[in-house]
Amino acid sequence: xxxxxxxxxxxxxxxxxxxxxxxxxxxxxxxxxxxxxxxxxxxxxxxxxxxxxxxxxxxxxxxxxxxxxxxxxxxxxxxxxxxxxxxxxxxxxxxxxxxxxxxxxxxxxxxxxxxxxxxxxxxxxxxxxxxxxxxxxxxxxxxxxxxxxxxxxxxxxxxxxxxxxxxxxxxxxxxxxxxxxxxxxxxxxxxxxxxxxxxxxxxxxxxxxxxxxxxxxxxxxxxxxxxxxxxxxx
Length: 234
Prior knowledge:
234 residues; alpha+beta; 3-stranded mixed sheet; 5 helices; 41% helix
């Protein structure tokens, strides 16, 4: 007797559905093929189950078909979750690296202020602090900024150009904008050019801390030094 033929309790020979068997095998393989075979397995499982139900008892393997459908679906769900988690991990890692960049640039700016008595001129701020970063240009680029010509992903707050600002610890000093280029400077209008992280950006404040701010919150930040806290540049 053929292996794909089974004898039922009523003594009648029934053929086991090849679609049902294939669905189960492809569903199991889906766990090692990134869900590719699971898509086919899900389709074949549904087709096999439908064929068995309409065969009038000529085909068997309903349990295999249902198993194939379930295993294929589980395989697809598994890989969807894996891809989602991987994507979130990449975003978080990129944001952490960007935060690190800004903190190091903040230290370089602080060193410049200590040596010169004021913030650098906005038009040359990258050039001014580059020596204090050990000339590591990678620090000026956000990992999420994919523009091929980018040398700098950060914008210097133009309102601080060449000024010694006392107090004002919460004023914005640097912030992310995609593909702006070397020595980029400006205020809120620069954000319209696009953000590397889309939903918000990392901000370096005058006291040296870096915070993630969502798009709506950017307009609530302090961009202009308080007049009474300003002192003339040296």
